[in-house]
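>> received
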Amino acid sequence: MTGLNVVQPASRRLAKVMSWTMLAVLVAFPLIAPVIDLGFYVSFVRRVMIFALAASSLNFILGYGGMVALGHAAFFGAGAYMVAILALEGVTSALVAWPVAMLMVALLALVIGAISLRTRGVYFIMITLAFAQMVYYIFISLRKYGGDDGINLTGYSQIPGIDLANDTSFYYLVLAIVVACLSLINRLVNARFGRALQGIRENESRMQALGYPVVAIKLLAFVLAGAMAGLAGVLLANHNLFVSPSLMHWTESASLIIMVIVGGIGLRYGGVVGAAVLLTLEEFLRLYTEYWHLPLGVLLLAIVLLAPAGLASWWPGKVALATRQKAAP
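>> returned
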């Protein structure tokens, strides 16, 4: 028992130190990168953070709510398309376009969730996939907005006092948004709402018998996750200055699920670690071979076998184990 009592505070302290250290590195990176001739990677790290937000929003419902949604990219792509469409219609102010895009994606998630949450298990997986493909084909059919070819944005969204055309300014804006969203997810998970959501994941029938509004709780979580994925899409549209229907394809949803699995399902930074590892490996392997999918698959298989709980738990877990062994009588 003494060893266990030592391990838990040590593990928590380690996690906190690692969190603040990583945040400090991310804050300093745009300032250091040009000095060491890595200025190009400021844009790359910004892209990683955007996908980390999308993966974390999926991890919120998958890891804490047990909702395996194989259509989460529909919200990701819809957010990107909404801000692009608004820009084409002359609405370039981020203070208007971004909240409107998130609201529209939240309404889309509300409709999809209200229907999909009537099912469970593999049926829930398939119905979210079906809805995502429906959204995908709807946007393909919008010839006015590019159809298969997508939409090229003529400029960035306008924010008073912030120039998104400046890589560093845009980087810090994305970092601030991602940190705020991760903090929100963490607070929700540790609040009564989050505890109830996790209870539903473990035993839905019991939570319903205890009087919890199970469907309402799951639907609210689904909508919140969809809105955050939509925000990630908004950021990606400004990052690329281009949006494509491929963002909503089921393969993109599968990529987000892989990120969550690699990072750690239900872990605080599972989506962040998974996105960073997957995109970094992809970027690195492309330098050496055009057949980068094969070595990437082998590496991901090794990660799953060596760290079945996810990479976000591996390092703290090793330290906790060492602390336990040292504290044991």
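>> The mean pLDDT is 87.
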